[in-house]
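Lecture notes, unit on binding sites. The following record was shown on slide 14. It pairs a sequence with beta-D-glucopyranose.
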Amino acid sequence: MKKQLIMGASVAALAALTLTGCSTARSASSSSSSSVSVPKGSTIGVALPAKTSQNWVLAKAAFEASLAKAGFKADVQYAAATNTVPDQQNQISGMVTKGDKAIIIAAQDGSQLGTQVKQAKAAGIPVIAWDRNITGTADVDYYVAFNNYKVGQLQGQALLDGLKAKKASGPYNVELFAGASTDANAPVFFNGAMSVLQPKIDDGTLKVLSGQTTFKQVNTDGWLAQNAQTRMSNILQANYGTATLDGVLSPNDTLGRAIIQANQTAGKTVPVVTGQDSETASIPLIMNGTQYSTIYKDTSVEAQAAVDLVSTLSKGDKPKTVLDKKNNYNGVKTVPAVELTPVLVTKENAVSAYANNPTLEALAKAGQ
Ligand code: BGC
């Protein structure tokens, strides 16, 4: 009975949209959450990007478990490795057409989904950007992610701390890497890191021999390891014939391992490399000192936070969100967000940081 009423309200809101245009529909949906209907038992779409890092691989099972437990059906799809953006666009349109009742999206390219989220909005389907924001549109309803700026700050501070631990005083030679320019997170990570590192570049503590210090110069196309490895090799060849590279800001573990590999191939050791994601391939490297740090962003917790939001909508309640412009402004609006707290992990705290995750905890313990 209640469901019918809610759906009736949704139809009324859509009718208002058709008859009188957006403004009426907007006020209808903001004055009452009953214009959105996400019944228990309905199917929730989850559109994930290409598997460029382990977190995306883990995401499918995490969503399927959380959605099942909350009483929803899961429709989880990955964008293909090639033709990735159109593939994801088609998947999201398909979710709208099929009638998925909410759509959770981790964007391959956050600037290329305006048409699809508009389509969802017109059909009364709430859109939740997950981990990566969707930019240039007012039609994204919520954003669930770790605090990305904080991730960057932790990475920048870890680079400084790691350098100090290896060599008491500078100057230190460092190189900087960032993620893909198509990922709204990548500049936020980089800006967070640079908020810590730029003052140290300015006062001469840090030297960047390549001279490449802007996001435009240091981003890594597609977050692909091969691209970071090639750039690192080229920088070593051009700038580090006799000079020593003391540390590298790497935005995640996959690229960190590629950066380490490039140094090893050149017959060099780089003492401090940062990371992110707590990938199983990087934990042993952290424990044996090859990589200095990573960040723990528990994928299950992040998926659960999005599913909790869906459950809240399902009850007709208003989700608790924050408006955090620095992290979550998408070029059109600050997307109401659920923000989770990332944790910095080094060899020192790895065992305790991974206490809730048997796989990671075992890897940390094995490397002690
Ligand atoms: C995620 C990172 C991940 C990167 C590459 C980012 O959007 O937040 O955790 O390392 O994408 O896949």
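Take-home: Residues 52-53, 55, 131-132, 179, 183, 185, 223, 252, 276-277 surround beta-D-glucopyranose (CB under 6 Å).
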